[in-house]
Predict the 3D structure of the following.
Amino acid sequence: MNDNLANKGLSFDIAGIKKCQKNRYPLLYIDKVENVIPGKFARGIKCFSYNEWFFPAHFKKEPSVPGFIQVEALVQTFLMTFLTLSEYKGKKAMGLSWDKVKFKRTIVPGECLIIESHLVSFKRGIAKGYSVSFVDGKPACSAEFTVVIPSVLSKFNPK
Amino acid sequence: MENLKNYSRVFIESFGIDESKLSSLKYQDIPEWDSVGHMGLVASIEEAFNIEMEIDDIIDFSSFEKGLEIVSKYKISFNE
């Protein structure tokens, strides 16, 4: 993490995360978010225990976190970079594009994913940015996102 | 002419539409020009002409032709 972002910003537990975004069990894939600088940055944490519903199926003898769930954790942390702004808190957000998705390692039960999300631009309900993640300090998955807030977009629709 | 070419290019690149269909194109005539496509179009036009449109102008921007009139308000001439 950038040194000037470490140990700064807001923290959200699971109740706080649920106030900001609409994702819920069994599709809420972040446990805690720290160092949130609304409009700029968020650091998400997701710890995977073997009790996760997908491990028995993915895969029976070699359980690992499915790629789509890793990316979902990345985008849910990214949401916290702008849904923590007071005027957008709790609004429905929809993915428009997920680009340059890369997986650098397998994530297994007992490991924690640390996600760092950066908001590059946020204008008229369209958020663009990226997330990178780490397990034990080593790079895991990363992706770039474009996410829209439909209720904001609709204010600009031609009549 | 250069500004008109630039303006047309933004539509062609944003929506993948043939140039011959531009002059009559209106909002929601094609699936690509929906609410999300509209924001992408506006952002591309702002970038192409180095302008920032006001909210009322974004809402009024309902067709290719109407857009010419609106962008002209930002001192971009299409009659060169």
Observations:
- Residues 61 and 133 of chain A are 25 Å apart (CA to CA).
- Chain A touches chain B through 14 residues (CB under 8 Å).
- Residues 67-79 of chain A form the longest helix (13 residues).
